Amino acid sequence: xxxxxxxSMPYNYCVVVTFCMLVAACGERNEPSLATSAEPPYQxxxxxxxxxxxxxDPAADVIWSSAGTIITAQGHQELAPTTDEDWAEVLxxxxxxxxxxxxxxxxxxxxxxxxIEYAQGLTAAGQLAIKAAQDQxxxxxxxxxxxxxxxxxxxxxxxxxxxxxxxxxxxxxxENENENENDQGHSTR
Length: 189
Description:
2 strands, 62% helix, Four Helix Bundle (Hemerythrin (Met), subunit A), two-stranded antiparallel sheet, globular, 189 residues, mainly alpha
């Protein structure tokens, strides 16, 4: 028998055992990892009311105040952005609205199939506004703003919870006040 084999046999045995341990360690585990767990590692921090007041409403207001024409006794005012910076502001607001649709579909926030449909409508309207801002197309932005308004209105008709004393929420937002502003601010095109 070869003497080299006899002296290296313990070494070969250790290599084989180490290799088997590495293969076993790389195998499947019984505990789920973050990447494969059923529940994603996120959590909703704000209430729906806060999400609306702090994220959606300000972004929607940028879209609505950047599209259309205001006509008064003194004349008319075009609302369309006129500079690259103005269009960038609209783009950022549109992206916020688009992603806010996803926020509204998170587990713990989604309130049913209609809610999901409205949130997807918000995302679709936001995508239209993104495209309009990228193209610097004021007509397309006006249309996107109208679509956004329709989605918001439909959702609020079904899910708006009135606070005592009317439509005003705890954060001071008055839907009727903003609705009147929007109707006046987007009366023509």
